[in-house]
């Protein structure tokens, strides 16, 4: 069916602030439901370029990383820097409209950990 994750990881994944999450949660617990006309108001949806970059990064980690025997972590070699990973991404996507560096680093932050408090990394740089 799905995977259970903590509320903070869910917020991080969908780009929802903690304060907004708890505001909607408290309204729901009081029996009030937020009314959004189009159902997407005040929410951020990832673009296809963002999702492509995220998938590319996961594949990059699988290809060049080392899996840990006792967890699902994948560690990249110590000599690999974030800027090097971005340059590989740019080279692989020269024919497309690739993400800019700052947005790419945002993808990296979301992929590398579900939330600072969770301490459940997907891969580490």
UniProtKB/TrEMBL annotation:
Xref: PANTHER family: MYND-TYPE DOMAIN-CONTAINING PROTEIN, TRAFFICKING PROTEIN PARTICLE COMPLEX SUBUNIT 11 DOMAIN-CONTAINING PROTEIN
Protein name per UniProt: Uncharacterized protein LOC118419108
């Amino acid at each position: 069916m799905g995977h259970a994750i903590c509320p903070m990881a869910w917020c991080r994944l969908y780009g929802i602030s903690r304060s907004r999450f708890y505001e909607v949660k408290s309204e729901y617990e009081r029996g009030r439901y937020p009314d959004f006309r189009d159902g997407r108001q005040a929410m951020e949806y990832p673009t296809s370029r963002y999702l492509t970059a995220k998938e590319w990064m996961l594949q990059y980690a699988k290809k060049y990383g080392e899996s840990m025997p006792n967890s699902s972590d994948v560690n990249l070699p110590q000599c690999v820097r974030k800027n090097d990973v971005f340059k590989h991404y740019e080279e692989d996507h020269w024919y497309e409209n690739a993400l800019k560096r700052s947005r790419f680093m945002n993808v990296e932050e979301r992929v590398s950990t579900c939330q600072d408090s969770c301490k459940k990394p997907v891969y580490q740089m």
